[in-house]
C-alpha cells in the first residue's frame, strides 16, 4: 500500500524501520543513523560552537543523543512560521554503573541501574549486547567514542520455578538491585569492565574516564504475523517516530508548500526520565536552535516571537493499541486498531498537549495524506503517561498536538507495531511539515 504524494509504501517503511532499529542500539547511534539518512538527502551538519551560514538550505545538528534538523529553502523571511515534529531517541533499558564489577557464587556480574520504566521481566533470559559512548583521555584532550558490542556478552538469568514455587501462583517478583545484574563471565574475581571498554575503543585502560553504557537485546527487528503485517523489535518507543519524522522531513523539503513554513524535526534524548537535561526537551536545545534559524534568515527577537506565534508543534510518541487479551484496560469508546492509522493523544489534565486547534492541524495533515486518524484517551480510572509535548508547548508558547502510532508491549524489550502504520505515520508527518491547505487556525 502507498500513502501520501511522496509515495510511502508499507514494505519500504516497515523494512526501513527494521533497519533503523537494528542500526540504533543507543540514543547516540540513533542520531548517527538519522544523520546518515539526512546527509544522503543533502543536509549539512552544523556545530553549535560555529557561526551558522545565512545561505538557505538543509541543515542538522547533534547534541550528544539528540538531533535537530531543518530546512530554510522555502522560508519567505525571518517571520516564516515553523512546523516542528518532536520525538525522542531514548528507550527504557539497563545501564552500567560507574563501578559495576561484581562477583557472586563464582560468577562475574555487572551492576546496572534501571533507565526509565522498562518491563523488567522482558530483559530476562535474553542475549544482550552493549552500546553507548565512552569518554577518554587523548593526546589533544577529551575524546568521545561510540561503541557497540553485538556479541551476546550479557544475560540476566531467571530463577527456575523449582526454587520458587510461588512464581506460578503469585507471579514473578523482581528486586531490581538483586535480581537484574547481568552475568558476563565465570570466576571469583569481579572482572574489569573499564579494561573491557578500553579494548573496545582502542585506548589504554587508564585513559577511560567515563561511559554512558547500556544493554540492548540482540534479536533483530523483523516483520511478523501471518501476512507480515506487524513489526516486532526493540526501542520502537520511540525510534519508530524518530524514523518516521526523519523520512517525513526528507520528503517535505522536496515539496513547495502552499503555506510557507520552515520544517523542523527535534529528536530528544532523556524523555523516558523526565527530559530535564542538557539535551532533553526541557533544555535550551530547541529554543536556541529555533532562534538561530530565525537569525540566519536575517531576523531578531521580535521576528522570532512573530514566527513562533504562527507555528505548530506535533509531539510524536507511541500510542497504546487496544490489547486483545486486556481489552478491559482500555477506554471502550476509543478503541485503537493496529494498522488503523496515526493516533491523536488527548488528556484533559494536559498529560498530552493536544487541544482542539492542535488536533485540527493534525487531522488536516492526515486528510492531506489520505490516511485515517484515530483518537486515544486513557480510561478515566487509570493514570495517564506523558510526552515531550507539554514541555515543548510550555517552553515555546506554541500550539502543540500529541500523536503516536499504535503499539503493543510498550516498554518491553521487544515491542509490536503495524507495518502499514509506519507508512501512514510518515505520510501524515510529511504533510504536517509541508502543509498544502492554508488555514487560519
TrEMBL record:
EC number(s) from the headed UniProt entry: 3.4.11.-
Gene Ontology annotations of biological process type: proteolysis
UniProt xrefs under CDD domains: M18_DAP (cd05658)
Keywords linked to the UniProt accession: Aminopeptidase, Hydrolase, Metal-binding, Metalloprotease, Protease, Zinc
GO molecular function: aminopeptidase activity; metallopeptidase activity; zinc ion binding
InterPro entries found in the cross-reference section: Peptidase_M18, Peptidase_M18_dom2
Highest rank taxon of the organism: Bacteria
Cofactor: Zn(2+)
Any one annotated GO CC term: cytoplasm
EC top class named in words: hydrolase
Any single Pfam family the record assigns to this protein: Peptidase_M18
Protein name: M18 family aminopeptidase
Annotated source species: Luteipulveratus mongoliensis
Amino acid at each position: 500500500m502507498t500513502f501520501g504524494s511522496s509515495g510511502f509504501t508499507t514494505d519500504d517503511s516497515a523494512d526501513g524501520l527494521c533497519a533503523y532499529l537494528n542500526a540504533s542500539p543507543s540514543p547516540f547511534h540513533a542520531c548517527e543513523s538519522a544523520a546518515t539518512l539526512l546527509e544522503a538527502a543533502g543536509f549539512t551538519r552544523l556545530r553549535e560552537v560555529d557561526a551558522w551560514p545565512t545561505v538557505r538550505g538543509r541543515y542538522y545538528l547533534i547534541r550528544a543523543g539528540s538531533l535537530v534538523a531543518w530546512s530554510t529553502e522555502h522560508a519567505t523571511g525571518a517571520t516564516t512560521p515553523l512546523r516542528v515534529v518532536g520525538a525522542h531517541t531514548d528507550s527504557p533499558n539497563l545501564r552500567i554503573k560507574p563501578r559495576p564489577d561484581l562477583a557472586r557464587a563464582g560468577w562475574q556480574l555487572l551492576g546496572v541501574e534501571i533507565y526509565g520504566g522498562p518491563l523488567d521481566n522482558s530483559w530476562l533470559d535474553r542475549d544482550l549486547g552493549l552500546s553507548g559512548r565512552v569518554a577518554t583521555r587523548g593526546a589533544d584532550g577529551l575524546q568521545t567514542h561510540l561503541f557497540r558490542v553485538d556479541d551476546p556478552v550479557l544475560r540476566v538469568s531467571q530463577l527456575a520455578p523449582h526454587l520458587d514455587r510461588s512464581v506460578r501462583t503469585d507471579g514473578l517478583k523482581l528486586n531490581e538491585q538483586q535480581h537484574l545484574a547481568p552475568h558476563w563471565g565465570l570466576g571469583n574475581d569481579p572482572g574489569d569492565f573499564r579494561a573491557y571498554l578500553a579494548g573496545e575503543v582502542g585506548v589504554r585502560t587508564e585513559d577511560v574516564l567515563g561511559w554512558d553504557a547500556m544493554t540492548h537485546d540482540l534479536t533483530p527487528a523483523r516483520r511478523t504475523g501471518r501476512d507480515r503485517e506487524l513489526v516486532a523489535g526493540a526501542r520502537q518507543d520511540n525510534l519508530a517516530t524518530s524514523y518516521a519524522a526523519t523520512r517525513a522531513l526528507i520528503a517535505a523539503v522536496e515539496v513547495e508548500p502552499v503555506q510557507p513554513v520552515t520544517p523542523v524535526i527535534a529528536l530528544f534524548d532523556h524523555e523516558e526520565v523526565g527530559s530535564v537535561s542538557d539535551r532533553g526537551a526541557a533544555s535550551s536545545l530547541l529554543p536556541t536552535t529555533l532562534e538561530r534559524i530565525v537569525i540566519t534568515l536575517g531576523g531578531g527577537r521580535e521576528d522570532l516571537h512573530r514566527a513562533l506565534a504562527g507555528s505548530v508543534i506535533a509531539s510524536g510518541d507511541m500510542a497504546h493499541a487496544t490489547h486483545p487479551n486486556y481489552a478491559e484496560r482500555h477506554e471502550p469508546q476509543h478503541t485503537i486498531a493496529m494498522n488503523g492509522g496515526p493516533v491523536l493523544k488527548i488528556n484533559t489534565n494536559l498529560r498530552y498537549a493536544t487541544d482542539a486547534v492542535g488536533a485540527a492541524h493534525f487531522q488536516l495533515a492526515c486528510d492531506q495524506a489520505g490516511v485515517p486518524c484515530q483518537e486515544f484517551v486513557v480510561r478515566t480510572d487509570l493514570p495517564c503517561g506523558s510526552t515531550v509535548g507539554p514541555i515543548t508547548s510550555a517552553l515555546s508558547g506554541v500550539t502543540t498536538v500529541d500523536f503516536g502510532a499504535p503499539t503493543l508491549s510498550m516498554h518491553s524489550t521487544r515491542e509490536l507495531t503495524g507495518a502499514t502504520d509506519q507508512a501512514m505515520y510518515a505520510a501524515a508527518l510529511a504533510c504536517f511539515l509541508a502543509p498544502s491547505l492554508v488555514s487560519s487556525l
